[in-house]
Structure formats: C-alpha cells, structure tokens
Design goal:
The protein is an alpha+beta fold. It is built from nine helices and 14 strands. It has one domain (5-331): Chorismate synthase, AroC fold. It has helices at 38-48, 108-115, 131-144, 181-197, 224-233, 246-249, 254-257, 290-295, 303-331; strands at 5-6, 11-16, 22-28, 65-69, 71-72, 75-76, 81-86, 149-157, 160-161, 203-210, 238-243, 267-268, 271-272, 277-283. The strands form four sheets. A five-stranded antiparallel sheet has the order 1-2-3-7-4, covered by helices on one side. A hairpin with a 2-residue loop joins strand 5 and strand 6 (75-76).
Length: 333
C-alpha cells in the first residue's frame, strides 16, 4: 500500500491504524534550530481529539504525542522527526458487526476489493483517526510559517449556513468551531438529535489564510491551488473543494470578476499573490448510521473535529512550497 506520503521538500509520511498500537508520522525536510513546544503540540492534538463534546464520538483518547527522533533540547535537528500517539481506548469489539457488513461511501468494500484483506476495527487505515498524524505534521509545518495565520471554521452544516464570514481571525469559534453563537447552538441541538436517531450530517469548512508569502506555487502541475486541492481531498469524507467563491464566480462575466484580484482567492496563475487565501471544503455525512452508529462509537458529523486537520494540511502545503521557493530564490541569488 503506497500513497502514505505528502510533499516534496517538506514531506510527511503517516502510519498506523485506528485500533492498532499507535498512529504516527515521520516528517522529513524540517529545518534545524526551530523551537519545539510540546505543550503547543498537545493543544493542537486536543483540538482534534474525540470525546470532548456530546456531539463527538464517545471514544475518549488523550492523544499524547511522543517525539522519538529529530528533536533535541527542544529544538529541531534537521533530521527526520518521528512522533507517535498510542491508542489507549480502542474497544474493538464494538466493530464486530462491521466485519462482513460494508458501509456505503466508506472504504470498507473498496479496501477489500483492492487488497483482499482489511482491518475492520474502526476503519483501520481509512479511519478519520489517521488525521491526528496530519495534525502533528501541521504543527511542525507551522514552525516554518510563524507569520502566517490559518483560521478554519464551519460555514455550513446540513440546512444551517453562516450569514457572513468572520471579521477577523480572533473571532471565537465557540464549542464546535462555528463562529456564530446562534448558529452554533442550533447545530448542537440538531447534531444531538442526529446522534440519538443514529443519523449523520455533512457540511462545509472554510479556511482563511492571512499573511501568505508571495510567489508560492510551481506551475504547471504543482500550482499552489492544485496542491491545496490534493491535500484537502485526501481527507476522509472530503468530497468537494473550491478556491474562494469559485462556483458563484463562474456565473459572472469576466468584466466583473477581473475588476478585483480578491475574486481569485489569493492565488493567480496558481501562485500566491500575498492576499487572503480562501478555500472551501465540502464533507459528506458519515457513512455509519442507524443501529450501527448507536452501538459503535461514531461522530454524527465530522466537521467540528476536522477544522484543525484542514488547518494542518494547509500548513503542510505552504511549508513545502515555502521551502521550494526558498531553494529557488537561493539558487538564483
């Protein structure tokens, strides 16, 4: 099984299964001498961790990171960084009903078709729990991009939609990463009802990136927007991606959209222009529903916990392109 690595100069390789001994990530290409704060890393993982809210899965994991290599005296060495997070609350017996019962829209059936064997416990490698490794990678990528601000939030859940975008990145995202108290309360009530009925819901996560360096992106196949798209669509349950208001812009004439560069989501020709980058990701409702959802431990909606993962993958993309751009600039200086 290949396809477990992402990036070129800054590369992450994730490993582990949902109900295995541990999950983890190897980070290659990390510059030396950057300060590492373990408490900050723990805080990022806690943002994604299960069991912190009644509308999350009931699985509870502390998700404590163990740094095995690449860091000495709280500084990066420039060598590969390996971090693991041990699984401590698997309860694999809850998933026996899924052993011979494939969930439509999940990787259950296709994994079996591809490999002839699979780990049915919690989805194995295809589980959303794999994303904790991406959050670790994103933390280290963020050390390279200290001046860049990443702010993701839920903009839609089922029939609920934000009436306007947050004014800035300091707006409180509330209990479940919705920066509007009224909508947040309504969605919590809705998801509580979904959980009780064994129902699930999808929606949209929006990401705003401020203070982006200019010149990030490598035409023609490694455009910044192309790598953002691959990063986001690689996330479990992500089924749609757009730059800015792309699907609204296509309805407007060029004479209108060409008046303002902000219409292009912070990238022109696949290269960052220094303006705010706006991305939208659509996530489907989880495949586990009905009695299976009630007996197992599943999120009725993954959006509240996917927000930090979206930010992490954006950091990985930008750190990789930043180092590539730096290498190019150094070569031609």
């Amino acid at each position: 099984m290949s396809g477990n690595s992402f990036g070129q100069l800054f590369k992450i390789t994730t490993f582990g299964e949902s109900h295995g001994e541990a999950l983890g990530v190897v980070i290659d290409g990390m510059p030396a001498g950057l300060m590492v704060n373990l408490e900050d890393l723990k805080s990022e993982l806690k943002r994604r961790a299960p069991g912190q809210h009644e509308v999350h899965t009931s699985r509870k994991e502390e998700d404590l990171p163990e740094i095995l290599s690449g860091v000495f005296q709280h500084k990066t060495l420039g060598t590969p960084i390996t971090v693991i997070v041990r699984n401590t609350n698997q309860r694999s017996e809850d998933y026996e009903a899924l052993k011979d019962n494939y969930r439509p829209g999940h990787a259950d059936k296709t994994t079996m078709m591809k490999f002839g064997f699979r780990d049915h416990r919690g989805g194995g490698r295809a589980s959303g729990r794999e994303t904790l490794a991406r959050v670790v990678g994103g933390y280290f990528a963020g050390l390279i991009l200290k001046e860049v601000s990443f702010y993701a939030y839920i903009s839609e859940v089922a029939q609920f939609k934000l009436s306007s975008s947050p004014l800035n990145h300091s707006v409180d995202r509330g209990e479940i990463n919705i920066p509007d108290k009224t909508m947040s309360d309504e969605v919590i009530t809705f998801l509580r009802e979904c959980k009780a009925k064994g129902e699930s819901a999808g929606g949209v996560v929006t990401l705003s990136i401020l203070n982006s360096p200019t010149g990030l992106g490598e035409p023609v196949f490694d455009k910044l927007k192309a790598d953002f798209a691959k990063a986001m669509l690689s996330l479990p349950a992500c089924i749609g991606f757009s730059v800015g208001t792309a699907f609204d812009l296509v309805k407007l004439p060029g004479s209108f959209i060409s008046q303002d560069s902000k219409n292009f989501g912070g990238m022109e020709g696949g290269i960052s222009n220094g303006e705010e980058i706006i991305l939208n990701m659509a996530f489907k409702a989880p495949s586990t529903i009905g009695e299976k959802a009630k007996t197992g431990r599943h999120d009725p909606c993954i959006l509240p916990r996917v927000v930090p993962v979206v930010e992490a993958m954006a950091k990985v993309v930008m750190a990789d392109h930043y180092l590539r751009n730096l290498a190019y600039s150094t070569f031609h200086s």
